[in-house]
């Protein structure tokens, strides 16, 4: 076991943090959590010898705002383990994109993985993931990573993906407030891009700034945020075919 590990993550609905945390718990006695989901005036630089990065997959890419926040971290030649977390469909170029970014920051990437979590938009997909099988697989991978670290073997980690990366998701829509909204403004605090503002006219959301991360929907205490009905139905039709698919996590050393 490592004495400590630094865990940098962008996790609007909690699935990415949960999946990455399983790995961290399996290889380190202490985890230093650096949550980059919401804006930070100062981003803590790595203190441990091994650093873990975890980001969700949106339309086959990592969110641009997550990449921007990760890019402020100085690798200092430290070791890094990279994860993208997705809701069963596919992760496309996201893992390659995050590996490229972390490598450019001066880290030595020793391992990477694509982990499964519940889909943030269509909850029936990947429901209950990560589960006990995922935990076993992730902890087993952690033991392999520890062996590689102890062996001091330097090997380039190759992951799937394409250059140039696929075009990112850009839907001109955002979640809306439902009639039971109390106007508490909690959604304004959890929005990673500050796209939601509380005004005298109620809760307003900037479509241009919204990245459809679903943080406001997942964390509203009154369940008073949702996608417009037409978009939710369209996403259901597109993705519900994956409901019964049990996709395994993928690991790369």
Structure explained in plain terms:
It is a single chain. This protein has helices at residues 15-27, 64-70, 94-104, 132-151, 186-190, 215-219, 229-239; strands at residues 2-9, 28-35, 50-56, 79-86, 108-116, 176-177, 196-199, 202-205, 225-226, 250-252. The model has no long low-confidence stretch (mean pLDDT 96). The strands form 3 sheets. The protein has a 6-stranded mixed sheet, sandwiched between helices. Strands 6-9 form a two-stranded antiparallel ribbon. 28% of the residues lie in helices and 22% in strands. The chain is globular, with a radius of gyration of 18 Å. It has 253 residues and is an alpha/beta fold. Helix 1 crosses helix 4. The chain contains 7 helices and 10 strands.
- Indicate the overall shape: globular
In whole angstroms, how far apart are the ends?
Answer: 18 Å
Point out poorly predicted stretches: none
Helix content percent band = 25-40%
Which features would summarize this protein structure in a list?
single chain, 253 residues, alpha/beta, six-stranded mixed β-sheet, two-stranded antiparallel sheet, 7 helices, 10 strands, 28% helix
Short description:
It contains seven helices and ten strands. It is an alpha/beta fold and 253 residues long.
